[in-house]
Amino acid sequence: MNDADIETDAADRMLLQRMAAGDRVALATLYRGYHGRLCRFLSRLTRRADVIEEVINDCFWIAWQKAATFQGDSRVSTWIMGIAYRCGLKALRQHGDEPIQDEALYGDLAPSHDPGEDRELRDWLGKALERLSVDQRAVLELVYGVGHSLNDVAVIMQCPVGTVKARLFHARVKLRNVLPDLAGDPSMQLGSTP
After folding, report:
1. Are 78 and 148 in contact (CB under 8 A)?
2. What's the pTM value of the predicted model, to 2 decimals?
């Protein structure tokens, strides 16, 4: 953890302490600070904006209620992401496992020379990610999108680090195998000869 991460976590811990004392301004501050990150993460689980907002609201309701029970065994960001992940899984059970929306994927990519190419790339990647399980998409986003360590992801997903590594490995293998198929170029498939 670098100095900025340590400072951010210390500020978040202070906000949790204030929330435990009933400070709604602290809740609003924490909510604003995490909203974008949670939207990005949850957009990998479902395409419905209403479900994403519902999950974020549920997450912060739980954080509000349990702020006093935060033990400090992990960073606050890990704790909040874990709550959001579990709320997201619950929402998926209620609303179904809907694939991620194309626009939610890599929406932060800078436009290229040809906007049509950018759209085609997003469609291609979106279709590939739809073939992954919810847990595989979540691991990819937590590690590569949000930047959590494997240990943090294990805490968030409440599973052993070995399970996180396996999900990440299988997600990468599956993507490596399906991307050439989706591109319609059999010569790009692994193990094929030109």
Report:
1. yes
2. 0.75
Hey, what domains does the chain have and what are their CATH numbers? Answer: 3-96+118-184 (1.10.1740.10)
Question: What's the CA gap between 19 and 13, in Å, rounded?
Answer: 10
The two tokens of residue 194 are: 């030109």
CA 3 → CA 66, 72, 179, distances in Å? 27, 18, 38
**What is the chain's pLDDT, residue by residue, as a tens digit (194 residues)?**
678 888 999 999 999 999 999 999 999 999 999 999 999 999 888 888 999 999 999 999 999 999 999 998 999 999 999 999 999 999 988 887 554 444 443 344 333 344 555 677 777 777 888 889 989 999 998 998 888 999 999 999 999 999 999 999 999 999 988 888 776 655 444 444 44
**Which residues, in sequence order, are CB contacts of 84 under 8 Å at separation 6+?**
38, 41, 42, 55, 56, 59
Residue 126's nearest CA partner among 55, 178, 186, 48 is: 178
What tokens were used for 38?
């949670």
Element (H, E) at 6: helix 3-20
Give the integer Cα–Cα distance in Å for 163 and 175. 18
